[in-house]
Amino acid sequence: MSDRSPVVRRAAEIAYETVGAADGMEKGVLIGDAQDAPNLAIRRFTLDPGATVPEHTNEIEHEQYVLAGEYVVGIDDEEYVVSKGDSLFIPAGTVHWYRNEGDTEGAFICAVPAGDDEIELLEARD
Predict the structure, then answer these.
(1) 2 domain-assigned
(2) What is the pTM of this model?
């Protein structure tokens, strides 16, 4: 039996913040370190119409589930148009980026291993 207590967070409790390197992206941590979650962090991201997130890598893997909208995800040298209900696995160290070309907001859930993550922005490719 765990010595941790269950946690229920209401939508109104989630604070969203602008993602610094991105243009038009916000992140809210649904469950994470602050809730004493030992293994995973679950985050919700939104992509405004016209949003762009530059090419980058993460030190940790990402599992994502698209909640709303339709947007482009670049993974390595491939582009994928994703929409509600689609799922993605982005291995640690994989180059990826996002672009919302539509006129509606995109949103996705991202689950990652608990702990620190180093993000490396890459130079724009011509």
Answers:
(1) no
(2) 0.89
